[in-house]
Amino acid sequence: MTADQWNLLSNLDHCFNEYIGYSFVEHYIRDQNALHPKLRFKYSSVRDYFTSVKSKIQLGLEKNRDFLSLSLNDHSTLLRTIVEHTTGLGGMFISRQYGLFDYLSFYNSAEIIFGPVSTAYGVRVINLLDPDNIFIKLIIAILSFYTAYTKKYSD
């Protein structure tokens, strides 16, 4: 890997780590574990968690140096078309890192939010994700900027 390639990869990793909100997830889990077991990971809390994680992943995309170099029209197209998919994958990635679906009450609340079939599918995807976190971050970035995919959804 060249020095420029290494810098690009390091910048991507740093941007993801800085804006995605790992401390948010750690704080969320700590707060939930401080509650009585019957009160942990209730529907409203899990719904708010997913909403926050998706917005933090979008913020990470918006702060990406490559995204910032695009025109305002391209910003709008990216945000309108593919952010939903990349934030979904990013949310799965973060959920895997912290083992959130290992908590039965979290899983049950996710089923209420997404439905049993979608939740089971999401967990299968999570279990298939490559264990290399840098690789997953790179895939999320590639999907975010993949021109053919963007054009498909912007027409």
Shape category: globular
Rg on CA atoms, Å: 16 Å
Summarize the main sheet: none
- Number of DSSP strand runs: 0
Name the poorly predicted regions.
none
Global structural class:
mainly alpha
Mean pLDDT: 83
Output the helix-strand order: HHHHHHHHHH
- Total DSSP helices: 10
Taken together, the total number of domains comes to: 1
What is the end-to-end distance? 36 Å
Structure description:
By secondary structure, this protein is mostly helical. The protein has one domain (3-154). 81% of the residues lie in helices and 0% in strands. It has helices spanning 3-20, 22-34, 43-62, 65-68, 72-81, 83-98, 104-114, 116-128, 133-145, 147-154. α3 (43-62) crosses α7, α6 (83-98) packs antiparallel against α9 and α7 packs across α8 (116-128). The longest helix is centred in the middle third of the chain and has 20 residues, at 43-62.
Quick structural summary:
With about 160 residues, this protein is mainly α.
Characteristic terms for this protein:
single chain, 155 residues, mainly alpha, 10 helices, globular
Secondary structure elements and their pairing?
Layout: H1 3-20, H2 22-34, H3 43-62, H4 65-68, H5 72-81, H6 83-98, H7 104-114, H8 116-128, H9 133-145, H10 147-154
